[in-house]
TrEMBL record:
Signal peptide positions on this chain: none
Listed name of the protein: Winged helix-turn-helix domain-containing protein
SUPFAM superfamilies (alphabetical): Winged helix' DNA-binding domain (SSF46785)
Domain named HTH lysR-type: residues: 29-88
Length: 122
C-alpha cells in the first residue's frame, strides 16, 4: 500500500449511528497500520500523536461487532499491530464507497472547479 493522501480531493465521512463516524482519518490510520504493522508508526506517518492514534484505534475497535485492529505489546519479540479480517473488510468497503461516490460525481466536481478563479489553488 502507498502512503496516505493527507488532503484528498474527494472524501466521504460516514455517520453510521449518531456519533459513530468513519472517515478519511480513520481509514488512513487503518491503511497505515496495515502498511507499517504499528499503530504508533502509522500515527506518526499521519502527523498524529501516539495518544491520538491509540484513541482512534480504540474507537475503531468498538464501532463494529468485531475489533478491526489487533495489537501486541512490545517486549523481547517486539510489539506490533495488524488489521483483523473485519478491519480489512471495513477498510475495503469504505474505500469502495469513496471511489464509487467520486466516480458518480466526477462531472459535478469538474464543474465546481471550473467555476473557481484562474490560478486559485486554495
Amino acid at each position: 500500500m502507498s502512503a496516505p493522501r493527507l488532503h484528498p480531493e474527494f472524501f466521504i465521512r460516514l455517520f453510521l449511528d449518531g456519533s459513530v463516524m468513519l472517515g478519511p482519518g480513520k481509514a488512513a490510520l487503518l491503511e497505515g497500520i496495515a502498511r507499517t504493522g504499528s499503530i504508533s508508526a502509522a500515527g506518526r506517518d499521519l502527523g498524529m500523536s501516539y495518544k491520538r492514534a491509540w484513541t482512534l484505534v480504540e474507537d475503531l475497535n468498538t464501532m463494529f461487532r468485531e475489533p478491526l485492529v489487533e495489537s501486541a505489546r512490545g517486549g523481547p519479540g517486539g510489539g506490533g499491530a495488524t488489521l483483523t479480517d473485519a478491519g480489512r473488510q471495513v477498510l475495503t468497503l469504505y474505500r469502495e464507497i469513496e471511489a464509487a461516490s467520486a466516480a458518480v460525481n466526477a462531472e459535478r466536481l469538474a464543474a465546481l472547479k471550473s467555476m473557481r478563479p484562474a490560478g486559485n489553488n486554495g
